[in-house]
Amino acid sequence: AQTVTQSQPEMSVQEAETVTLSCTYDTSESDYYLFWYKQPPSRQMILVIRQEAYKQQNATENRFSVNFQKAAKSFSLKISDSQLGDAAMYFCAYRAPGTASKLTFGTGTRLQVTL
Amino acid sequence: SQTIHQWPATLVQPVGSPLSLECTVEGTSNPNLYWYRQAAGRGLQLLFYSVGIGQISSEVPQNLSASRPQDRQFILSSKKLLLSDSGFYLCAWSVPGVSYNEQFFGPGTRLTVL
Predict the structure, then answer these.
(1) Burial class (CB in 10 A: 0-12, 13-18, 19+), B90
(2) Whole-angstrom distance, CA of residue B20 vs CA of residue B49
(3) Which of A42, A100, A108 sits opposite B32 (nearest CB)?
(4) Residues 6+ apart with CB under 8 A from B31
(5) Could you give the percent of chain A with pLDDT greater than 90?
(6) How far apart are CA B108 and CA A25, in angstroms?
(7) Of A36, A47, A89, A108, which has the fewest beta carbons less than 10 angstroms from its beta carbon?
(8) CA of B111, closest CA in chain A: separation in Å?
(9) What stretches in chain A show pLDDT beneath 70?
């Protein structure tokens, strides 16, 4: 069974600085999808960024980028120029190929942004 | 554009009472639908998913059941709630057949069982 591990329960970053959130996963599949979701205090889950395993190029969405290391099964999220609005829980998620599109989530990292 | 609704937003129920949470999606057809539960300070656990009307798959044995009476309606139910059913319930949808199939989440229902 696939597992997703987020080893950092909490992280803190100063406004305008850069922070990296870690995620590792375990799978025997060769093609799969990885996601980072943000859950602010409203608890609405918001998709931040996505990566397909067969694409070697790291995904980027504005201030958010990933470092995808397929051999190491690592999928970290880098947030540049951190803003107060980035404060939230961040969840890493894995999806195996298949029509059901089931997601396996990590336990999350709570990110605090300080002035 | 697509939207997803969940209600109620908050619910407080006594142990042993029934439960019905509803989720509806607008702006898309034949979506995959999902129910997740999030315990306090924890990640999301997939409870049920559905790839079509009347097709329900259960991920974990539990006190809950799900139904999909219409294409864009997904209902989470229980006949008798337990204390352990408390949590935050999220419904999500995805479009089958596209490459990423990312899931889009509703606003959630906070359930407290007393």
Answers:
(1) buried
(2) 16
(3) A100
(4) B25, B71, B72, B93, B94, B95, B96
(5) 76
(6) 26
(7) A47
(8) 14
(9) 1, 99
